[in-house]
Amino acid sequence: MAEDDEPLMGRPRQKLVETKEKWAREGRALTGRAGKDRLPPGQRLTAEWPVLDLGICPNLSTDDWSLSVGGAVETPLKWSWADFMAQPQVEQTSDIHCVTTWSRYDNTWNGVSARHLLACARPRSSAEFVMFRSYDGYTTNVPLKYFDDDDVLLAHSWEGAPLTRDHGGPVRVVIPKLYFWKSAKWLRAITFMDKDCPGYWEVRGYHDRGDPWREERYR
Ligand SMILES: Nc1nc2c(c(=O)[nH]1)N[C@H]1C(S)=C(S)[C@@H](COP(=O)(O)O)O[C@H]1N2
Ligand SMILES: [Mo]
Description:
Layout: H1 2-5, H2 14-26, E1 44-45, E2 66-71, E3 77-80, H3 81-85, E4 90-97, E5 102-113, H4 114-121, E6 129-134, E7 139-143, H5 144-147, E8 153-158, E9 161-162, E10 172-174, E11 187-193
Parallel strand pairs: 1-5, 2-11
Antiparallel strand pairs: 2-3, 4-5, 5-8, 6-7, 6-11, 8-9, 8-10
Bound molecules: the ligand Nc1nc2c(c(=O)[nH]1)N[C@H]1C(S)=C(S)[C@@H](COP(=O)(O)O)O[C@H]1N2 and molybdenum atom.
Molybdenum atom (MO) binds near residues 98 and 100.
C-alpha cells in the first residue's frame, strides 16, 4: 500500500485523522440522494476557502520544487519550476466540493493542464490509475479517466495570485469532478499504474473514486 513505502514527513494532526476516520465509520453527511445539480447532495456553499490538511505543511521555495512523472509511461519526466512554467499555461474556473461538506463555486486556477502532461508523458495503454505523491508524504489515487479531463490542471495560481503555502503552493492538483481530498497539495510526483492502489484517506475509510454527485464519500 502507498502507506508502507511513503511515510509522512512529520506527525499528522492525530485528532483530525481520528475524527475523519469516525465520520467514515458512521457515514456522516450521507443523504442517500444522487444528483446533477451544481451543488452535490449533502454539500453547503461557503464563500471562504477553508484550509484542510494533515498539518504537515512543507515550506517549499520554487527552487526546492520539482515534479517527477513515472510508472507506466513511455516518457518519464522531471520538471523543475522553470521547466514547469515553460509549459503551455491554461486558466480554468471550477467549483470545489470537500467531503467535509463545504463547496466553493467559481475558483479560477492557472497552471498546466493534465491533458498537456499526458501528451508529454504518454501513459502506456495498460495504465488505468494515477497516484499523486506530495511533499508532506500525502498520497491519493484516482482513475486515469478522471485525471484525463479538460478541467483538470496542475495549478500554481488561484484568483490570479500564486498559491499560498497553506493551499499547497508551489503546485497542487485540481480535479473539480472529484471530492477535494483527491486534489493533492504540494505535488511532488505523479505515478501511472496498471492496478489501483489506495492513498492516505482511501485506506482510512474514504471512497476509492470520490464522485460528489454520487455521494462517494466513504468506502
Ligand atoms: N499534500 C496534501 N494534499 C492534500 C491534503 C493533505 O493533507 N496533504 N488534504 C486534502 C484534503 S482532505 C482537502 S479537503 C484539500 C484541502 O485543500 P485546501 O486546504 O486548499 O482547501 O486538500 C487535499 N490535499
Ligand atoms: Mo478533506
